[in-house]
Specification:
The chain is an alpha+beta fold and 95 residues long. It has one domain. Helices cover 23% and strands 48% of the residues. It is built from 2 helices and 6 strands. Strands 1-2-3-4-5-6 form a 6-stranded antiparallel beta sheet. The longest helix is centred in the C-terminal third of the chain and has 18 residues. The radius of gyration is 14 Å and the shape is globular.
Length: 95
């Protein structure tokens, strides 16, 4: 039975565990790794404030350091996903 993600963003799976998220398909050459570094209060909820994102190669033959293609830190989860989805699309198209 194929994996069906509960969350998607722009048609790709978004998987979260605690403060870590993976965006993309592991069968593609690249995925996006996001780590929520800090949160802030917004009404009754805690929302992501600082988010570190990395564009990672899915090539397991590479060392962990060599798998990081790009990285940055953004304010807010939406901003991080927005720039990350552009990186991911371009990297997977150019591979």
């Amino acid at each position: 039975m194929p994996f069906t993600p509960k969350l998607t963003y722009k048609g790709k799976p978004l998987v979260r565990k605690d403060n870590e998220l993976y965006y993309g398909r592991m069968t593609d050459p690249y995925v996006l790794y996001l780590q929520i570094l800090s949160t802030k209060q917004s009404g009754n909820m805690q929302v992501a404030d600082k988010v570190h994102l990395q564009l990672l190669s899915t090539d397991e033959a590479k060392t962990p350091e060599a798998r990081v293609a790009r990285q940055t830190t953004k304010n807010g989860l939406y901003n991080a996903l927005d720039i990350g989805s552009i990186w991911l699309q371009k990297a997977n198209e150019n591979h």
